[in-house]
Amino acid sequence: MLTASHLGFRYAGNPVLHDVNLRAEPASMLAVTGPNGSGKSTLLHLLAGVEQPAEGTVRRDPGVRVALLPQRTADIDALPLTVAECVRIGRFHPGRWPRRADRNAVTEIMERLEIAHLARRRLRELSGGQRQRTLIAQTFVQEAAVYLLDEPTAALDTDSRRRVHELLTERVRSGAALIVASHDDEETSLADARHHLEQRGPVR
Ligand SMILES: Nc1ncnc2c1ncn2[C@@H]1O[C@H](COP(=O)(O)OP(=O)(O)OP(=O)(O)O)[C@@H](O)[C@H]1O
């Protein structure tokens, strides 16, 4: 589906990733772990095609759809979007009007993540957890084969975290490949495999 071979990356000459090899397997969750600054977010950006590797390749099989839940999204907050509009973007297909299935999927995911009552609120008016649940809804409303999730539950309370973990497990059961960067032991224990990144670059 999605294969990373010998990936390397540097920010302004500072090495972050070196010789990373991994594959998104269908019906499987891979946890990406490692200390702060070890390059988990960078790796997800490379896998999503947001950044280009300095070394190695990311190969995506033709037609495989990849959804990314980024960790930092200040640009999204700057848009005057409501919660419902933000989630609907996940079902937006250029050149075609939303179908009933798209509208149903949006309603269903908003109910599951308990943001339906916030539908008309602007993103910038939300709490951190409400905003995170909105972005998770936007990610999971997409019909992707591969989901790249950067610390999906870091801002969430226990109930919301449990709900998101149920969603992760269901997506895996329905055949998706999940790659999840996480510091949370409970979350990484849901994974079928783990890829640990070591700290690189100069020690300060
Ligand atoms: N845009 C950037 N420009 C320069 N350096 C960057 C940039 N983004 C990240 N870095 C550096 O690259 C390294 C890896 O960052 P990254 O965000 O990928 O780590 P992470 O493992 O996701 O960390 P965390 O657990 O804190 O989320 C860090 O040392 C960081 O300071």
UniProtKB/TrEMBL annotation:
Q: Which SMART domains match?
A: AAA
Recorded hits in PROSITE patterns, A to Z, give: ABC_TRANSPORTER_2
Q: Which Pfam families match?
A: ABC_tran (PF00005)
Question: Which PANTHER family does the entry link to?
Answer: IRON TRANSPORT SYSTEM ATP-BINDING PROTEIN HI_0361-RELATED (PTHR42734:SF5), METAL TRANSPORT SYSTEM ATP-BINDING PROTEIN TM_0124-RELATED (PTHR42734)
Give UniProt keywords alphabetically.
ATP-binding, Nucleotide-binding, Transport
Organism for this UniProt entry: Actinoplanes couchii
* Family named by the database record: Belongs to the ABC transporter superfamily.
List each copy of the ABC transporter domain by range: 2-204
Protein name (database record): ABC transporter domain-containing protein
